[in-house]
Design goal:
alpha+beta, three-stranded antiparallel sheet, 7 helices, 13 strands, globular
Amino acid sequence: MTTGRAIVQTVFPGSNPAESMSLVRKEKPRPSPHNVVVRMIASAVNPVDLIYIRDSFLGRFEDKGAVHGSEGVGVVDEIGEGVTSCRVGERVIPLVFWKYYCGRGEGAWQDYVEVAEEDVVPVPDTMSDAVAAQFVINPWTLYGMLHDLQIPKGKYLLQTAAGSVLGRQCIQLAKHWDIKTINIVRRDELKDELIAIGADEVINSEKEGIDAVGGMLYKVNI
């Protein structure tokens, strides 16, 4: 019997996530028809994962072992009967969040996950594992946010924590949609990094500030 590692929640509620999780061995699944087994390469740790641990969101799966992990990237390890859209060895993103993580307690923090053929996204060679492992939660949230804000082309979006993963992704998507960005950081060394990926203005809040006068924004020294 082939096994793999899995990080399961063993303490409910998990007020201290680091002390609520255990590393265990878990039997590798065999793919059902039209399903694939993905061997995970890298999995992200998102705020939603920590919230779910603290709030016992997966408490109903305590008896079988609740595996957290909202997203990640891996390689197709085995395919079930009838699978035609992917092949063994192909690098893919398994879309685990709703159906598997939330619905079955089978998240991405394990060596092997079984998902339906339709729930994998192929990863291009130009995308690194680190980027692919963060493909779902932040980018899709950001896409929805910018879509709902309906900022006209050429107008400005102001964001704090611009040096974060989400902040950097916001800069790049806004640039792609011709939206200008004003980005607040706390360290000067982040300025060149953010400008290089498309930021229009970067302000260090430790040294500079913003004044709003008559509907106009002005950068001022503190």
